[in-house]
Design a protein that fits this description.
By secondary structure, the protein is of the alpha+beta class. It has a single domain, classed as Nucleoside Triphosphate Pyrophosphohydrolase. Helices cover 23% and strands 26% of the residues. It contains 3 helices and 8 strands, in the order ββββαβββαβα. Strands 1, 2, 3, 4, 5, 6, 7 and 8 form an 8-stranded mixed beta sheet that branches. β1 and β2 form a beta hairpin. It is globular, with a radius of gyration of 14 Å. The model has no long low-confidence stretch (mean pLDDT 91).
């Protein structure tokens, strides 16, 4: 696998209900990594083994995701404590975490992209790498 320049980041987007603590991930037709499918022959790097010397700033990714979902500015916030890397033959893909700030998940916007919101228990059909990333995000958000 390559250790070259990082490729464009992918985002895991989630919503946490403020009253119940219910955590749901945006699942698109390609999985929970927005907005492109995970490259084939990928492997998730161990936690704490980031190869990038300069990490991508999440603001640009968050704004691009808001635009892609046709959401108002401020509808997403980056979780600065989350960072992961997927090693692929094309290079390293950074993975960032974004939180929907709305009271309820933007169901209609997700549906326009063929997506839906799922809980961790509904994520069984995801690729094992995405399951591990969802677990890492869950542990960070809910402890």
């Amino acid at each position: 696998m390559s250790v070259s320049t990082p490729l464009p980041p992918r985002l895991i987007l989630y919503h946490k209900q403020s009253t119940s603590g219910r955590l749901r991930y945006l699942r698109l037709p390609t999985g929970i990594l927005a907005f492109e499918p995970m490259p084939t022959l990928s492997s998730l790097k161990e936690e704490g083994t980031a190869s990038a010397k300069v990490l991508p700033h999440p603001a640009a990714c968050i704004r691009a995701a808001e635009s892609h979902l046709k959401l108002p500015n401020g509808s997403l916030e980056a979780e600065a404590e989350f960072y992961a890397e997927i090693d692929t033959p094309e290079g390293v893909v950074p993975v960032l975490l974004g939180r929907f700030t709305t009271i309820d998940p933007p169901f209609a916007e997700a549906e326009t992209l063929g997506g839906k919101f799922i809980t961790l228990t509904e994520a069984r059909g995801l690729h094992p790498i995405e399951l591990d990333l969802a677990r890492r995000a869950y542990e960070l958000v809910l402890g």
